[in-house]
Amino acid sequence: MQTMFWPATIAILGGAFFLATAGIFLLAVQYRRHGRLSWRRTITTATAAIYGFGLFSYTMLPLPSSRDEFCRPGVAIPQLVPGRFLDDFKLVIVERGLSGFATSFTLWQVLFNIILFMPLGILAVRWLRGNIITGVLLGFAASLAIELTQYTGIWGLYTCAYRVADVDDLITNTAGALLGAVIAYLPMFRFLSGPVEADAAQAPARPVTRARRALANVFDAGFTSGALFVISAALELLQRLGGMEFGKQWMNFWLPLIVVFLVFWLPSLAPGRATLGQRCAWLMVASKQGGPSPAGRALLRSLLGFGGINFLFQISTSMDEISVYPLLNMLAVIYIAISAFYFIFDADHRGLAGKISGTGFIDRRAL
């Protein structure tokens, strides 16, 4: 029983971690593509992420503790005879009868292979807006990739295969995807389909509200934190493998500066005059006359606005050996409070950075 349920725990934890780190990015892509967020589309995306981790957990885990652990005669020999499971069914029925067959591991292993791939067929039809053929092809491709990965020891990561690559698994998995694609047309799965919407680029311009600007800030904060996390983890791994070592000044100051520059300041200078998060929310920094803002003013707004605030936050939370750290924290908090006050109560929705730079926001589709 534990063997059946612990991969599900891994899938839930892995899916939750993935959504926590990449969820903002997925929401930003959704808003950029559709012009709004949909709870149905968001739930289905989260379901697909957890299911993907579940598929990995049940087909690949646990991993061997060493590369050569399963390099022994008679271990993980591939099964390449189609329909072998039918012969196993007959043998169990003869030995244990129909009642014993109904509770046998032989039967439930096949049923589990079918059940495991049914969600893939459902998602192919409802989430990807495909059809039955799409579900079958996706199920076949996913199962083939899994079996080849098992057969090659995760493509050479392990010296020998540690799981049995079975052609019958390919057959039953594809059958499960087919069954899932068929039942996906039942009304009970309709909620998995997001609303049918045209490309947001073709939609009319909408008013720029505080909520929309706040959402753009959330996107920018997510891009910044996600990039810092991924790059820091990669550099840490590189260092552990004997690569170049990066000092605290690089990690605590220069890396946040580079990331904030790429997320906030460089896009503000580029045509479109908006940060990455603002671009996903279809916003553009505009002049008082309503057209695109000059590059210098757009950059000044980003430096004084959320881009500068984000940079101060990133370095003030990591500068543990610099004497101005308490003062920097205090100044950042004061400036954030003043900026938030202007953002909430300013009648023109411009905020403190907008007041100083003489800029505002428009929907970029209005041009």
Give a topology summary.
Layout: H1 2-34, H2 39-60, H3 84-102, H4 105-126, H5 132-151, H6 153-156, H7 167-183, H8 210-240, H9 248-269, H10 276-280, E1 283-286, H11 295-304, H12 306-316, H13 325-345, H14 351-357, E2 360-363
What tags apply to this protein structure?
single chain, 367 residues, mainly alpha, 2 domains, 66% helix, 2% strand, elongated
Structure in words:
A two-stranded antiparallel sheet has the order 1-2. The termini are far apart. By secondary structure, the chain is mostly helical. The longest helix is centred in the N-terminal third of the chain and has 33 residues. It is built from 14 helices and two strands; from the N terminus they run ααααααααααβααααβ. The protein is elongated, with a radius of gyration of 27 Å. The model has no long low-confidence stretch (mean pLDDT 86). α4 crosses α7 and α9 packs antiparallel against α12. The chain has two domains: 191 residues, no CATH class; 163 residues, no CATH class. It is found in: Membrane. Pfam families: RDD (PF06271), VanZ (PF04892). Keywords: Membrane, Transmembrane, Transmembrane helix. It comes from Glutamicibacter nicotianae (Arthrobacter nicotianae). It is a multi-pass membrane protein.
